[in-house]
Amino acid sequence: MHASTVGRVLGRHQTPLLRELDPVTGAVIRATRRSARRYEHDHPGSLIHIDVKKLGRIPDGGGWRADPAQTAAVHRTSRQRAGYDYVHAAIDDHSRVAYAEIHDDEKGHTCAAFARRAITFFASLGVVVERVITDNAFAYRHTRAFHAALADHQVAQKFIKPHCPWTNGKVECLNRTLAIEWAYARPFTSNAERRAALPAWLDYYNLDRAHLGLDPEAYAAWVDWVNPVTGESMGTPRLPGVGKQGSPRFAEMVVNAPKSLSIAAALHPEVSAVLDRAQQDAVAEIQAWLALHSVTRVGPRGRQEVVPVQQLQTVAVSHRTSRAGDPHRHIHFQIGTRVWAAGKWRALDTAALFRQQGAIRALGTAVIAAHPELAEVLDRHGLTLDPVSGEVVELERFNGVMSKRGEQVRRHLERFEAEWEAAHPGETVGPVVSARLAAKAWAYERPAKKPTTLSEEQAWATELREAGYDPETLRQPVRRAQVSLDDLSVQTIANRALDRCAAGSSAWTRHTVQEHATRIMTEYGVHAAPAEIREFVRITTALAMEDCFSILPPGAPAPEHVAHLTSLRVVQAETELRDLLTARVPKREPKHPDVHDAARARGLDAGQERAAATVASTDPLVVVEGAAGAGKTTMLGVAIEVAAQHGRAARVVAPTLRAAQVAQQELGVPASSVAALVHAHGWRWNSDGVWTRLAPGDTDPETGRTYRGPTEDARLVRGERVIVDEAGMLDQDTALALLTVTAEAGATVALVGDRAQLAAVGRGGVLDMAAHIRGRTFDMAEVHRFADPAYAEVTVRMRDGNQPGEVFEQLAGLGLVRLHDSGDEAREHIAQERQDSDAITVSTNDEARTVNARIREERVSHGVVDDTTTVYGSDGLPIGAGDVIQTRKNNTSIGVANRQQWVVQHVEDDGALSVREAGSGRKRQRTVRLPADYVAEHAHLSYAATTYGVQGATVAGSHTLLTDATSAAGVYVGMTRGREANLLHIVAENHADARAQFIEAMERDRADRGLADATRRAVEEVAGLIENGPARFVNDEITALDKRAATAEAQAERWQQVSTALADLSDRETEVRERARAAEQTARQRAEQVRAEATAPVVSAARGALTAWEQADAAEQEASEQVRAASWFGKRRARAAHENAQARTAGARQQVTSGWGEPPRWNERADAWVERVTRPRIDSDPRVLDAEQEHRAARDALLHRPERAHTERLAAYARVFGAETVIRNQQAYLTASPAQQAAPAAKTAKQAREEAALLRALSPAEAAERIEQTRAAQAAWEARRAERERAMSHGHEERHRSAPRHDGPARGL
């Protein structure tokens, strides 16, 4: 075999080279970029990695990423050059906290300034930088400024080995992350936009982004409370035992993408990538939200404080498919129940987390629905995202296709796994076998199809095309105009959020307000970035909170998660309701008719007889309560019969149309839902729960027609008895409308119900208020429904809610409790053991869907349900002939009511269903046709139902599945449906565990019963909490220290900025001053040269004229002498010569006078005359003037340079400290030393950070004790200083008093 082949094989298996091995032991001793060795310093600040990332700038318009026309060739041929940005980055080796800035270069002084700011940034976090590691770039290795920046902070510098960049790998990874997640994460329209996005991304990176991937072992350790970052234990989980449950390891939430959006992602890789980012953004926002709002409790029981957490760990597990392999994008978001707060690891307050779920889910949904990139990429593919449902409108109708195929694959996979485990006893299905079985399950019963792996999403495109998917023929809905947050009214959304809060409950939390505000914002279909959504929701919530007030006593603790907020609307509505109820209380009790004969004929007991007599009377307000199975319907039949004998009409209304229809069938009187009755009398309500009333003649907003008043069958007559069945489910707004209508007509009201059963969905407590105000109620406690009298007694005790542990033992003693190892086993048992007429009660719609799917499989396997032709209901499950379904919306045109049950007889080709009414009691069962659209949106399987779905039903047998979401009312309703048997199913390890779960459920009451009850609950929740305890005291001190440190750091940073600016200014000033001195010297020399050049000809001319004049004068004098000396014959010639000389002298003098002003004065030297007469001419020469002016300017610039330098120093101070401050203290700033001023500020900041870090590490008691000691020491020091100052002041006064006085006449001498 050739050596190269051997080398490639060894290299493929990552076998180290011989030179990398110890020759004796064979151990790897030399690190390479592929080495498995990984190091991490043990505390923050021990090592900071620094590097520079060079990025090409983005041209205006965005370049080719934003505009395909802007190609690289276009920019190469243009004259403009965008240039480069230099991203300077620093990252802590231990904590991965990063800091980055963008600069125009990577020169030494720039790197030095960045290092100073980075060190200051880490100091603001309480981190003292000890070492810095860089590569060998010139700016890092050879620049004095960079070395000085590190030396000033006592920071050691390390360098990587040349050509080994992986040594500095953490910052290299950060550079890569910067490029992927910030610089090139999306198209930017300009370089400035990208620069502006960096700070927000850094906040996300440091605060929200996950930095650690967990392998299975590390994840298992995290579940067992081992810190994956440090490896330390965060506590010891409590294991489940007798009579106690184990510690919750984590709380889990699922961030789901709607089915059709998952399908779109499976069809289009571009949508898939953007959806991944949108989901990650949602997770990041949830993490940031949890970091702000998660709390724990500190202190002994009875004096606990609710404090915010300081460290919280979350794990996000992303999935693209369901277990069956159909497209289902979702993220399992797990929140660790161990948090760091007040100096130690503590338990997360999961009760608070439970209250926060709505706000968290709303936030995740909003981030995905409003993601700008997601809407853009869907639009490019011709798809539309519905902001309300989150579904892709064009693909929503294919949800059922994916679900059906997924259910098939899941069933096959479960069967294949069971067969494999049976054939391989004791072995575990591994990933390879699992993938093979999944592919087999996928291809099973599809022989004509080519097998495919589940990772190839093209398979789903094939499934969709076979189901009729064609991108060219998709139905395009009307496009909604794009909405931005600026288009929304904050006040409107705040008001609507409060309306929804008031409609839903009597009291709420801040998280409830935020949840509604977030959902309303999402419904508008906004497109916005996560940070913008966060800020908008924060502002809206704060505005809505201004209209809320607390129902807690003044001074009581008010944690965010406690429902203690209400509004004036709630108080007003409840006050009006109480007034209407009070007005119906008679002054004297009316006489009751005799119902004895009718009661005996119907077999009524004494309690039923008294109740019937009361209902049949003229009493304006009757309150009747009866346990489940007490015979309320039989009693009402007698009361209605007797009332009719006395000429008084009666009608029955109920909170639901289904209950009203049952009452009409059984009692034979007019019946309707309460909502239908008040709607006929003009009451209207919107989606936010705001009620209004129309007057006759008003335009009905629902129909656009004129409202004429109630219809004939809805009119009430005076004295008519309006019987409200299931009155416990009546909400306050509906009751207020009903009592108003009956009061106007003079009708009487009878409220019949059971407060132990389900309460109102919205703001409730009507039956409680009526019972309290009326002061006289009739309770039918004798139970007739159940075949076993012993069980009837148990249900009465269950209704009372006292001693739930004994009730559980009685149920167990009667053999009515079934324990299961898992939820799957419980569902399997119920599916196999149930009878067709049995009721199955669960707590949530998701649980109902799971149970329904399993029961349907069982019925299909027995041939009871036809699975060949199916349609899909609103729960995503298939519906075929023989299935039992439930309609979920009242529709009079079709003839169906909400929660009405039907048996499917036929599935039509267009997806419509022919159904027969189930369990109506009629001899001839009614048959209706459900349109396909109605089935898809408002119908689903109904083998199992929530408590609201089964209340009012009476069947032979009942199964109730108890979970963490089951309430006391849910247990009572579920366990009282069956006449013959009522079984309770619990997933528990043993009897004690099941008993504990039952007790917990029986103590769980989520019903709203009015403001008084809400106040009582809020007070109970905060009982044992204190507002101002040690933890609050310590947190306030830490906050003050952080503020002091931030202030000092800002002050030090400002002085450092001034120092840097003044240093740069000094360098520039030296250079400018040298240039000014050189310019002055040059100008002076030039002025002298120009003057010399101008002086020479002028002086020469003056000297020439003077010389000519002097010579003429001398000639004249000589001629005069010759005249005197000439003979008589020669005088005439001598005089003529003299006259000629005189004429020449006069001419010369005239020339001197006209040319130079005057001849020399007597005894004036020639040089003096020349200088006197030439200076004005030389000084006025333009060349001399210009040169002299230039020289004066250069000289003035040099002389005034110190004054300008002072001005520039003041300007440098003003840019940092503010112009007004500097103007008031000019001399102080001019004489200040920035370096000396920065040092004490930095020292103060460092001390404050260290003290805050120390307090965080201590327990609240220890920290409080240290704070007290520190304050005492500080107070003592200040007292000593004050004493010294007083002593000094006293000594000065003594010296002043003993000195001679000079304020008056001296005495003595």
Description:
With 1309 residues, the chain is of the alpha/beta class. 51% of the residues lie in helices and 13% in strands. The protein has 45 helices and 34 strands. A six-stranded parallel beta sheet has the order 17-16-20-21-15-22, sandwiched between helices. Strands 3-2-1-4-5 form a five-stranded mixed beta sheet, sandwiched between helices. The chain has a five-stranded parallel beta sheet with strand order 23-34-33-24-32, with helices on both faces. Helix 11 (269-293) packs antiparallel against helix 13, helix 37 crosses helix 39 (1166-1179) and helix 37 crosses helix 45 (1260-1298). It is elongated.
Helix amount:
40-55%
Rough outline: elongated
Note the gap between the termini.
127 Å
Instruction: Give the strand content.
Output: 5-15%
Q: What Rg do the Cα atoms give?
A: 47 Å
Major sheet: order of its strands?
17-16-20-21-15-22
Number of continuous helical runs? 45
**Averaging pLDDT over every residue, what do you get?**
84
- Which class best fits the helix and strand makeup? alpha/beta
Care to count the β-strands? 34
Low-confidence stretches: 446-456, 1301-1309
